[in-house]
């Protein structure tokens, strides 16, 4: 007799992907904070900070897409996709405020982005979804 392994539903796979993108987004924010400190104190790591900003655009964009798909399938609330989309937009605005002249806006923006990224990760891992 052959044994048949149960297949993972596509929604479950998308949920795993969303959780992965949420973790990568938080990890990117941590990288950005580390490089920002070096950049401000030693005027170094600008290239790494810029690369981190690009990574933040990519990870938050992919998070937005996966959450939108999950919301469209009814597995999660649309609130998550909206928050991730706002996070992506704020990261783009944040990148435009990265000069020394606008640090008074860049630093508070970093805290808002951090709160949103961590909040989305906690939201995705803490609650049961229809895909679990």
From TrEMBL:
Q: Show the stretches that span the lipid bilayer.
A: 20-40, 52-71, 78-97, 103-126
Work out whether the entry's keyword set contains Transmembrane: yes
Which keywords does UniProt give here? Membrane, Transmembrane, Transmembrane helix
Give the highest taxon in the source lineage.
Answer: Bacteria
Q: What is this protein called?
A: Uncharacterized protein
User: What species was this sequence derived from?
Assistant: Prauserella cavernicola
């Amino acid at each position: 007799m052959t044994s048949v392994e149960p297949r993972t539903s596509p929604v479950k796979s998308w949920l795993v992907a969303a959780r992965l993108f949420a973790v990568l987004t938080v990890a990117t924010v941590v990288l950005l904070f580390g490089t920002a400190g070096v950049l401000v104190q030693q005027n170094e790591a600008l290239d790494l900070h810029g690369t981190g900003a690009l990574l933040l655009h990519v990870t938050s964009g992919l998070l937005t897409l996966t959450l939108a798909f999950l919301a469209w399938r009814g597995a999660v609330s649309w609130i998550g996709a909206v928050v991730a989309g706002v996070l992506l937009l704020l990261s783009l605005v944040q990148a435009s405020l990265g000069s020394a002249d606008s640090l008074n806006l860049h630093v508070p923006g970093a805290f808002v982005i951090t709160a949103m990224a961590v909040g989305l990760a906690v939201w995705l891992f803490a609650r049961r979804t229809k895909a679990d």
